[in-house]
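Example S7 (structure tokens).
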């Protein structure tokens, strides 16, 4: 944009534009003779900083103790200034590097109404990069399972991490999705597991003003996420949503009702595109698209694998064909581990159950065919005596 008072003007490129830009500059002399020239400007990329988190600790409030927590890194990126042990952010896209480890967020950084937030809000352009799915784990504490982790009205990219809870909570009292975005969100190679709340337990993509938010999700995994209202994994309202090469397994909408309602995995009202995904929410409506006069037939859901349930988009006028006819490899990211128990191996069966109980995701236990398992001893006494 060009501003200022002639003959001195200032050119400011739109963020995040870089490249060649031009504007016309005209002059007219006192006799009315005019000439127009073109001004060409090369705009370089905005500088970017990398901020490295060096502790899994959460500090509420932040302590000046020489380390760099995830919260302090977000503050440094937002403010373009050093915060405790975190390097300063820049005016460009800042990268927050989060090494492998489990980052447990047990405390709310702030609250607003029924919403609780585990981290400072994202207000600038930030990429948060983990070491990979199940390597960098950002989890709520066991007594704070219903709390928003990332709330962004800047430009947020999440890449290479696991976000959720260590166990699927038995209830979710309010509306605190793991990721809440009202602007531009990109999610790459990230796993959402055991999140539970009112709408869109993993991701809620919803406008908070006049702009239309956009969420792009790819190469990601959504497992065991549950909404007591709409969209077990993703809720997208008055917003654009694109999901590709991702797998949805065992997500649940509408209070885990049977039959499941409210979009087992995704509830959307707005333009949406789903391509090359694996939906393993068998026997239910994986994607619920709301048709309104504002958003007529704006969903394209071709080339997806619908598990055992066939075409599982609940909406008229939506393009869903063709579906994939062979299971895409992305489905394997949600493989359920299975344990095979030998014939009559009671001790093996007990240890398999104990192992399954200790895991946060489902385990399949296969018993041997035509075999009898005889329990001769107590595995566990429920009475406090004898
Ligand atoms: Ca600190």
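Recovered sequence:
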């Amino acid at each position: 944009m060009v501003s200022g008072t002639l003959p001195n003007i200032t050119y400011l490129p739109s963020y995040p534009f870089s490249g060649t830009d031009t504007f016309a500059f005209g002059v007219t002399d006192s006799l009315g003779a005019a000439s127009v020239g073109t001004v060409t400007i090369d705009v370089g990329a905005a500088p970017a900083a990398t901020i490295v988190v060096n502790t899994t600790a959460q500090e509420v409030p932040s302590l000046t103790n020489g380390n760099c927590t995830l919260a302090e890194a977000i503050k440094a990126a937002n403010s373009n200034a050093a915060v405790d042990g975190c390097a300063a952010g820049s005016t460009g896209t800042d990268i927050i590097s989060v090494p492998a480890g489990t980052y447990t967020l047990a405390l709310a950084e702030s609250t607003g109404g029924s919403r609780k937030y585990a981290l400072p809000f994202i207000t600038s352009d930030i990429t948060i990069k983990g070491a990979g799915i199940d390597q960098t784990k950002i989890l709520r504490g066991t007594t704070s399972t219903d709390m928003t982790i990332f709330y962004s009205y800047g430009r947020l990219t999440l890449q290479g991490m696991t976000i959720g809870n260590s166990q699927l909570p038995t209830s979710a009292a309010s509306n605190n999705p793991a990721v809440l975005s009202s602007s531009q969100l990109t999610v790459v190679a990230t796993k959402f597991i055991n999140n539970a709340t009112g709408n869109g337990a993993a991701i809620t993509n919803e406008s908070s003003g006049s702009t239309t938010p956009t969420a792009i999700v790819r190469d990601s995994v959504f497992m065991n996420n549950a909404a007591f209202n709409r969209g077990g994994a993703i809720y997208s309202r008055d917003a654009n949503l694109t999901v590709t090469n991702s797998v949805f397994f065992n997500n649940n909408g509408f209070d885990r009702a049977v039959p499941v309602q409210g979009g087992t995995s995704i509830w959307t009202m707005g333009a949406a595109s789903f391509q090359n995904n694996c939906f393993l929410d068998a026997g239910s409506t994986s994607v619920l698209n709301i048709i309104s006069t504002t958003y007529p037939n704006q969903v394209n859901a071709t080339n997806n694998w619908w598990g055992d349930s066939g075409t599982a988009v609940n909406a008229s006028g939506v393009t869903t064909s063709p579906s994939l006819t062979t299971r895409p490899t992305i489905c394997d990211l949600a493989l359920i581990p299975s344990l095979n128990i030998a014939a009559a191996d009671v001790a093996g069966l007990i240890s398999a159950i104990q192992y399954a109980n200790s895991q946060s995701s489902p385990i399949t236990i296969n018993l041997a065919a035509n075999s009898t398992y005889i329990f001769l001893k107590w595995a566990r006494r429920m009475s406090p005596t004898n």
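Notes on this example. The chain has two helices and 31 strands.
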